[in-house]
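In response to the reviewer comment on reproducibility (Comment 2.3), we provide here a single inverse folding case reported in full, input and output, so that an independent group could reproduce the run without further information from us. The structure tokens appear first.
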């Protein structure tokens, strides 16, 4: 049987769509800022939950050393179940699909805390088949645990040239899709490029990924790596850069305050 990825040999595991989940419309929530923190630190996750960020992401990938990754799963699940997030979007990032950690990351956290989880941020997505794999995996967990099928959304990290070329297909892969994120540093490494400081805003494929996502789905897009390297003076001296669409991911509350203020949309921007 041929599946959405086009492979005649791929098993026809259920997905959010095939399991009867509603085709979810893009969220009306404007997420201006995302505060990320390491999944092994209960203290930092508590600070993130109490912050003014629109979204929090608890990270099991880059923010956790190999020796911390397995224990951090339970720490993330406990944080999701017990902290007061004040209406924030609650997400976590597992390790890459190709890693030995991914399947346990997803099973452990989603089974334990799926009722208090809004989305999963998937790193190193190269094509729609990766998204469909996660979609079907989530569907099986939701069915097993009695969750509403399709309630947990997916954000995909675009971090390679291959992923940029497939951005539109990735965006359309499943009704679960909630965001497309351009990971500049890993992308630059993939193509052998050097970072150019402020000029990173004008990388062609950053704009290309944003445009493809908007064209395909009309919802959120993000440039995850940019806020870590942009000074407040850049926002003041180059106001045109404040009009870049989407949300910004920050690693500290100070950066989050700066970017949230700079990216706050005007009434004319948000009215339909």
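Designed residues, in position order:
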């Amino acid at each position: 049987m041929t599946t959405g990825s086009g492979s005649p040999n791929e098993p026809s595991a259920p997905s959010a769509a095939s399991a009867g989940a509603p085709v979810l419309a893009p969220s009306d929530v404007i997420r201006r800022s995302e505060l990320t923190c390491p999944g092994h630190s209960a203290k930092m996750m508590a600070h993130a939950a109490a912050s003014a960020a629109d979204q929090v992401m608890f990270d099991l990938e880059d923010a956790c050393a190999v020796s911390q990754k397995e224990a951090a799963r339970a720490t993330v699940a406990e944080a999701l179940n017990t902290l007061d997030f004040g209406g924030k979007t609650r997400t976590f990032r597992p390790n890459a699909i190709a890693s030995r950690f991914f399947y346990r990351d997803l099973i452990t956290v989603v089974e334990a805390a799926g009722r208090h989880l809004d989305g999963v941020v998937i790193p190193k997505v190269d094509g729609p088949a990766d998204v469909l794999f996660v979609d079907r995996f989530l569907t099986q967990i939701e069915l097993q645990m009695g969750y509403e099928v399709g309630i947990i959304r997916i954000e995909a990290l675009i971090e390679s040239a291959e992923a940029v070329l497939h951005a539109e297909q990735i965006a359309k892969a499943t009704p679960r899709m909630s965001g497309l994120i351009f990971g500049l540093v890993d992308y630059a490494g993939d193509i052998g490029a050097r970072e150019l400081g402020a000029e990173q805003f004008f990388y062609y494929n950053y704009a290309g990924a944003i445009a493809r996502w908007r064209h395909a789905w009309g919802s959120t897009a993000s440039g995850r790596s940019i806020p870590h390297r942009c000074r407040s003076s850049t926002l003041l001296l180059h106001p045109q850069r404040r009009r870049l669409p989407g949300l910004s991911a920050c690693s500290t509350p100070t950066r989050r305050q700066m970017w949230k203020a700079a990216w706050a949309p005007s009434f004319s921007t948000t009215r339909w």
